[in-house]
Design goal:
A four-stranded antiparallel beta sheet has the order 4-27-26-25, with no helix packed on it. It is mainly beta and 356 residues long. A hairpin with an 8-residue loop joins β11 and β12. It is built from no helices and 27 strands.
């Protein structure tokens, strides 16, 4: 990783070029997670490099659907939001926001974690969880500031480009989200006016902010988007706590619609969506502190209860052919679960070794 001063760094994700663009996706969450130095858990198969304080968050085995949860980190450092992990340059980079408003990152190369660090040129105090994406050979990371502006930084494998504001006329009060689609980087935000906006980046210039869907009244949380079989699927929580999704085919959005089966609880926070083993997998956090899982392979499955102790946004990831679910618990610790293949994520386990 490039030089930095204090904690962990994570690379930014790429933006999508201007042209046809998907609806905006963004969410706000007041997450907290106890963070400390933890030893990387030994996981069969692969080690997902999601971490809080330097410990990999997840590893996945195939057979149940997200296996037992392992606690990550100790209590030396506290986060105000969930971490975000993304692979880049043969390593997994994890980004987080400290309770002191400082961005934090670390990288795991398959053998050991880099030291945790931050950036000397951070523009302002950051809030909420970061987002990251790889685009055009670089990793882009984005944070939302308490000043209502988003800030981005790019890592090319040796150094950071420096923090720059994502310009626009809107004030944003929720975390951002970024993904790539159709050779461009797409960036999303929920503005103070209650509307979702998105803009795209083609590697040379940004397009303008535009309302994603005039007919959609955003909830209090950041949506999530993932590509599946040539289309872009956006998942979000409506104001009444109902999970919804919208499909972008490259020309326009289908409009927000309900899942096939009614949810067992009201949902909150940003959902997680991931394509793995030929299917799309979604996880939502309920207002009952449980998480709920469904999959789509042409038809939606019913919702599976993943158990209790879920706070804030869940996050799915894949590394070395395995899939993972990571999340912050109501107890303030970070956990991971392994995916098994047939229905969700299995019961949790605590990681006992907190050594680095």
């Amino acid at each position: 990783m490039g030089s930095g001063s204090r904690r962990r760094e994570r690379a930014p994700r790429r933006t999508r070029a201007a042209g046809s663009r998907p609806a905006g996706l963004v969410h706000e969450r007041p997450a907290r997670a106890g963070r400390g130095r933890g030893g990387s858990p030994e996981l069969t198969g692969c080690l997902l490099a999601l971490t809080l304080g330097g410990v990999p968050l997840a590893a996945v085995a195939q057979s149940l659907a997200f296996d037992g949860a392992v606690r990550i980190g100790g209590a030396e450092y506290e986060y105000v939001a969930a971490p975000y992990a993304a692979p880049y340059d043969d390593a997994v980079h994890t980004y987080a926001t400290g309770k002191d408003g400082k961005g934090d990152y670390a990288a795991y190369d398959g053998a050991e974690w880099s030291s945790s660090r931050g950036w000397d040129d951070q523009s302002t105090d950051y809030a909420w969880e970061p987002s990251a994406v790889e685009y055009d050979g670089k990793q882009y990371v984005y944070y939302g500031g308490y000043d209502g502006t988003y800030y981005g930084n790019a890592y090319d494998g040796s150094s950071w480009s420096g923090w720059q504001a994502v310009e626009g006329d809107y004030e944003f009060k929720q975390a951002s989200y970024a993904n790539t689609y159709d050779d461009a980087l797409y960036f999303y935000g929920a503005a103070a006016d209650g509307a979702l906006y998105d803009k795209s980046y083609d590697g040379d210039a940004w397009g303008d902010w535009a309302a994603a869907n005039d007919a959609y009244a955003t909830g209090a949380y950041q949506p999530y988007a993932v590509g599946y079989k040539g289309d872009l699927y956006a998942d979000a929580v409506a104001k009444d706590g109902t999970p919804t999704y919208n499909v972008f085919d490259g020309q326009g959005w289908s409009g927000w619609r309900d899942y096939e089966y009614a949810p067992p609880a009201k949902y909150q926070y940003q959902p997680s969506a991931y394509v793995y083993d030929g299917a799309q997998h979604v996880v939502y956090t309920g207002d009952d502190d449980h998480a709920y899982y469904a999959s789509y392979d042409g038809a939606w499955s019913g919702w599976q209860d993943l158990g209790d102790n879920y706070a804030y946004d869940p996050y799915q990831y894949e590394d070395d052919g395995n899939a993972y679910l990571t999340y912050t618990g109501e107890d303030g610790y970070a956990y991971y679960k392994a995916y098994g293949g047939d229905g969700g994520y299995d019961e949790k386990e605590e990681k006992e070794d907190d050594g680095y």
